[in-house]
Design goal:
Largest sheet of chain A: 7 strands, parallel
Family (chain A): Belongs to the SIMIBI class G3E GTPase family. UreG subfamily.
Pfam family, one (chain A): cobW
Structural class of chain B: mainly alpha
GO molecular function (chain A): GTP binding; GTPase activity; nickel cation binding
Strand content of chain A: 5-15%
Number of strands of chain B: 0
CATH topology of chain B: Urease accessory protein UreF
Number of helices of chain A: 9
Oligomer: heterodimer
Protein name (chain A): Urease accessory protein UreG
Helix content of chain A: 25-40%
Distance between the termini of chain A: 19 Å
Structural class of chain A: alpha/beta
Radius of gyration of chain A: 17 Å
CATH topology of chain A: Rossmann fold
Strand content of chain B: under 5%
Subcellular location (chain A): Cytoplasm
Distance between the termini of chain B: 34 Å
Order of helices and strands of chain A: EHEHEHHEEHHEHHEH
Order of helices and strands of chain B: HHHHHHHHHH
CATH superfamily of chain A: P-loop containing nucleotide triphosphate hydrolases
Largest interface: A-B, 31 and 34 residues
């Protein structure tokens, strides 16, 4: 009989930082946010920017099973074996928060199949302002909103806007066209989030996803530098 | 051996919030809704009744046998033999793995560890369910009840989401079926005492066929 202490491949402790062989597992970052805010485009841009220096994989949770995975495949941002889609039974927030088992299976299978990995991005299906990731699934989370969704979203708050480790305000190029006040969004976000960072992005601009990629690199450096996990 | 003090453990295991992945599976209801076979609460009731007397009875028997401590390899082979659809075999093993994760967190137990190590790709979900029940101090009747309830609870929730069916009507369907669940669970638990070869092998061919079709859909909300 094989007795382990919670860090086997089928370990019961979901947030364990190490893999069956004792090595540190990949950093897991969740990306959530309302429908249409640019989560998948952000993931694609991050992959393009990071894939040459990091070993990456992506798990998607689109409400319609394979849409996001197929977008990423079509855009050829990663080889197909580095992308997994998880079905969410019409409840995207359940799969990232209340019952994370399918997503945990997916991230572990990716590490087994194409590892070692530095980073796994877990993209939520489009949801509402209350959606957040479980700490049992991801190490850090990004909440993506966009200026066209209304410049009052940061003021409204909600768990995503308020507590995400990074708030991304996307599509800043559209602000003049939809009458959104970026200054107001930044002030409201600072009010809601205190010291937590906010990145304003326009994926069509030269800088593109740069600020988000920079934040991801910082998180990864901190993850790698953390003391080796004790078995 | 089930004791009165384990009743609350049964509630924890049977709770729809138990994080074992079931929420993303419709038990064939998504395919039935798309085909127009489930349109209202009456259809849901007929669908669930059919599931209970077929795959529900079979799952309950396997779960009861696992809770009794019968050989998990034999039980897993018996589950394979009772699951002709490759898509459903895959789903059952995946769900078995997901349930194993939750069960080991909830009721740490050397037998569960051994089962997880023996089936790295996942054992069939009813077998894991029975083992989880055993680890929780529950008996074969409890495991069978849990399997019977899951057989209909999943589809009922799925149909509420897929059709916007009135949740009170869906819950009333489950309540009306409760005596049937009890009957199915009792039959399954009795059979389990007769050993692996005596376990029920009822199946629903249409569920097998539609599961294969559903697995090939390019766009679907549920995993099965």
């Amino acid at each position: 009989m094989h007795l382990d202490h919670g860090h086997s491949h089928h370990g019961a402790v979901s947030a364990d930082a190490h893999r069956p062989d004792g090595t540190r597992r990949a950093l897991r970052i969740g990306l959530g946010g309302p429908v249409g805010s640019g989560k998948t485009a952000t993931v694609a841009a991050l992959c393009r920017q990071l894939r040459d220096t990091l070993s990456l994989a992506v798990v998607t949770n689109d409400i319609y099973t394979r849409e996001d995975a197929e977008f990423l495949l079509r855009e050829a941002v990663l080889p197909p074996e580095r992308i997994r889609a998880v079905e969410t039974g019409a409840c995207p927030h359940t799969a990232i928060r209340d019952d994370i088992s399918a997503n945990l299976e997916a991230v572990e299978e990716l590490e087994d199949a194409v590892g070692p990995l530095d980073l796994i991005l877990v993209e939520s299906g489009g949801d509402n302002l209350t959606a957040t990731f479980s700490k049992g699934l991801v190490d850090a989370q990004v909440f993506v909103i966009d200026v066209a969704g209304g410049d009052d979203i940061p003021r409204k708050g909600g768990p995503g806007v308020t507590t995400a480790d990074l708030l991304v305000v996307n599509k800043t190029d559209l602000a003049p066209h939809v009458g959104s006040d970026l200054g107001r969004m930044a002030r409201d976000a600072a009010e809601q989030r205190g010291e937590l960072p906010v990145a304003f992005t326009s994926l069509r601009s030269a800088e593109g996803v740069g600020p988000v990629a920079e934040w991801v690199r910082e998180r990864l450096a901190a993850w790698t530098a953390a003391p080796a996990p004790t078995a | 051996m089930a004791r009165l003090t384990t009743r609350s453990a049964l509630l924890v295991l049977a709770d729809g919030r138990f994080p074992a992945g079931g929420h993303a599976h419709s038990g064939g209801a998504e395919a039935a809704v798309k085909a127009g076979r489930i349109r209202d609460a009456a259809d849901l009731e007929a669908f669930c009744l059919g599931r209970l007397h077929t795959v529900g009875l079979t799952a309950a028997g396997l779960a009861a046998a696992a809770a009794l401590g019968l050989d998990p390899y034999e039980l897993d082979a018996a589950a394979d033999a009772r699951t002709p659809s490759p898509a459903l075999r895959t789903a059952a093993r995946r769900l078995g793995r997901q349930l194993m994760r939750a069960a080991r967190a909830a009721w740490p137990d050397p037998e569960l560890d051994a089962l997880a190590a023996a089936f790295p790709g996942g054992a069939h979900q009813p077998v894991v369910l029975g083992a989880a029940a055993r680890a929780a101090g529950l008996g074969p009747e409890d495991a069978a009840h849990c399997a019977a309830y899951e057989t209909v609870g999943g589809p009922a929730t799925a149909v509420v989401r897929l059709l916007g069916l009135d949740p009170y009507r869906a819950t009333a369907v489950l309540a009306r079926l409760a005596p049937v669940m009890d009957e199915v669970a009792a039959r399954a638990a009795t059979a389990a005492h007769g050993g692996v070869d005596a376990l029920p092998a009822a199946s629903a061919p249409l569920l097998d066929i539609t599961a294969e079709q559903h697995a090939a859909w390019p766009v679907r909300l549920f995993a099965s």
